[in-house]
Amino acid sequence: MSLGKILSDYAYVFILIMLRYNGLFLLTPILSSGLIVNRLKIAFSFFLALITVPIVTELYTVEVPGNLLLILADILKELSIGLIMGFIVLLIFSAIQLAGQYIDMRMAFRLANAVNPLSNSSTPVVGQFQNILATLLFLSINGHHILINNIHRSFEIIPPGEAVYINGLFKMIFRASGDMFLLSFKIALPIVGTIFLVDVILGFLARAVPQMNLFIIGLPVKILVGFVFLILTVGIMVNFYNNIFNELFRDLEKLLKLFTGG
Fold it and tell me: How far apart are CA 223 and CA 110, in angstroms?
C-alpha cells in the first residue's frame, strides 16, 4: 500500500471521528452553549479526535470509499450519532424548562421573561431557575464528562461509517420526545397543584366575601405560595433530577447498542 493511500485513509478516519464529536457539540445543552465560541467547540472536537484516532485505527481498518455518495453517507452517519445523543439530552433539559413555564403560568409570571445564556433565548423566570438548577447538578455529577466519554467509548462499539438505523432506534427517539411532556408535568405538578388549590380557596372566598377584591389579593398570594413551595421542594427536585440524569446515561448506553443493530 502506498504512503499516499495510508495518509488519505488516516485523514478520512480522523474526519469521521471529528464529525461524531462535532454532532455532540451542536445540540447538547451546556456543550452547545452560545457562551462557548464556535472556534473553541471545533478545537475541542479536533483535540478529542486527535486522542481517539490512534485507538480507532488500531481496532479497525477503514478505507476511503471510491464513491462520493458513500463518503457522504459515512459523513451523515457519524454526524447523526453525536446529534441524536445531544438531542436526547436536549429533551431532558427542555422538559425541565417546560415545567418551569407551567409553574410561571400559574404564578402569573408568564410575562416576566429572562435571557437564558445557554441557549440565547428568552425564558420565564421559574423556567430559568429550574434550568440553572439542573445545569449546576449536571455539571456537579460530571455529566458533560460522561457524555464525552460515551462518544469516546462509542468507537469501540460502532466502527466509523458502520452505524445502522433500525426501527428500535427511531422508537426510542419518539418515545423520548413523548416522555418529555410527561416528565415536565411530573416536575411541575407539586407547585401547580398547590397553586390550583389556592385558586379554589380564593374562589370560595370570592363567593363568601363579595366585597373583597381578590384580583388584588390573589396574585401576591399565589406568588408567595409558589415561592414558598419552590424553596421547600428544592431538595426533592435535586434528588429527582439526579435520578433523571442517571436514567439518561443508561438510555444513552442503550442508544449506542441500537446503532449497531442490536
Answer: 12
Residue 173 and residue 85 in contact, taking contact as beta carbons nearer than 8 Å: no
Dihedral angle sign, alpha carbons of residues 17, 20, 25, 30:
negative
Give φ, ψ of 34 to 5 degrees: -70, -15
Q: Which long-range contacts link 218-223 to residues 24+ away (Cβ below 8 Å)?
A: 219/108, 222/106, 222/107, 222/108, 222/195, 222/198, 223/107, 223/108, 223/109
Residue of 56, 71, 253 lying closest to 155 (CA atoms)? 56
- CA dihedral 54→55→57→59, nearest 10 degrees, is 160
CA 85, CA 196: separation in Å to the nearest integer? 37
Q: Tell me how far CA of residue 259 lies from CA of 62, 158, 165, 206, in angstroms.
A: 18, 7, 6, 59
| Three-state secondary-structure class, residue 198 | helix
Residue-wise DSSP of 31-65: TT-TTS-HHHHHHHHHHHHHHHHHHHHHH------
- The model's pLDDT over 53-102, given as tens digits with 9 standing for 90+, comes to 888 888 877 777 778 888 888 888 888 888 988 899 999 998 988 888 88
* Coil, strand or helix at 118: coil
